[in-house]
Amino acid sequence: SAVISQKPSRDICQRGTSLTIQCQVDSQVTMMFWYRQQPGQSLTLIATANQGSEATYESGFVIDKFPISRPNLTFSTLTVSNMSPEDSSIYLCSVEGLTQETQYFGPGTRLLVL
Amino acid sequence: GEDVEQSLFLSVREGDSSVINCTYTDSSSTYLYWYKQEPGAGLQLLTYIFSNMDMKQDQRLTVLLNKKDKHLSLRIADTQTGDSAIYFCAESKTGGYQKVTFGIGTKLQVIP
């Protein structure tokens, strides 16, 4: 499976600020995904990021709030903009597996907004 | 629509078998997954099954799929304290290229 790293691993931020989360993969992948896990909840897909095209957002998520970059086949960023306490979550990136049957997840970024 | 349901909590004694159950609603689900999340960690893919299979065994893990009832289960044999974690059931129509839909997770507590 791919080795996925995320930075930062955790952060505490003030409301109204923005945070950019980085996701780095040790091999080239076609698809990268960003999920959110709110406290005590399941994972929800925010958007899918393809290299060379704009990200595709799921219902309820918009580009102004969660801009995503995908500059190459091993890297992506997710920005959480104008944060409020409701944005306190774990944000995880994932990539498709070698056989394309699975997704593998990074360790997550734990965000607390005060 | 897609929905994955699972119970919130399971407690077992060390050495016993654990069975975590899951139901899903989307009959077009092609891949069904079990992920494990330990405290403070990301998601680890434990195992998965293709929808045309009814059973898959991998060491201490056995996955059973009843496609007619849309029911998936994960059996952990000889449960150890290191198995204490949250277990997520998940499904996907096309595998790794599209959205994976997750259940809320079952917290497994292993009592020594």
Topology:
The complex is a heterodimer of chains A (114) and B (112).
Chain A (H helix, E strand, L loop, with lengths): L3 E4 L2 E4 L5 E7 L5 E7 L5 E8 L5 E2 L10 E5 L2 E6 L8 E8 L6 E3 L3 E5 L1
Parallel strand pairs in A: 2-11
Antiparallel strand pairs in A: 1-3, 3-8, 4-5, 4-9, 5-6, 7-8, 9-10, 9-11
Chain B lengths: L3 E3 L2 E5 L4 E7 L6 E7 L5 E8 L4 E4 L2 E6 L4 E6 L8 E8 L8 E2 L3 E6 L1
Parallel strand pairs in B: 2-11
Antiparallel strand pairs in B: 1-3, 3-8, 4-5, 4-9, 6-7, 7-8, 9-10, 9-11
Keywords:
A: mainly beta, 7-stranded mixed sheet, 4-stranded antiparallel sheet, 52% strand, B: mainly beta, 5-stranded antiparallel sheet, 55% strand, globular
Strand content of chain A: over 45%
Instruction: Sketch the major β-sheet of chain B.
Output: 6 strands, mixed
Structural class of chain B: mainly beta
Molecular shape of chain B = globular
Number of strands of chain B: 11
- SSE string of chain A: EEEEEEEEEEE
Largest interface, and how many residues on either side?
A-B, 26 and 23 residues
Largest sheet data of chain A = 7 strands, mixed
List the uncertain runs of chain A: none
Helix content of chain A: under 10%
Q: Strand percentage of chain B, roughly?
A: over 45%
H-E order of chain B: EEEEEEEEEEE
Q: What's the total count of β strands of chain A?
A: 11
Give the low-confidence spans of chain B: none
Number of helices of chain A: 0
Assign an overall shape of chain A: globular
The structure class of chain A reads mainly beta
What is the rounded Rg of chain B? 13 Å
Mean pLDDT of chain B: 93
Q: Termini of chain A, distance in Å?
A: 36 Å
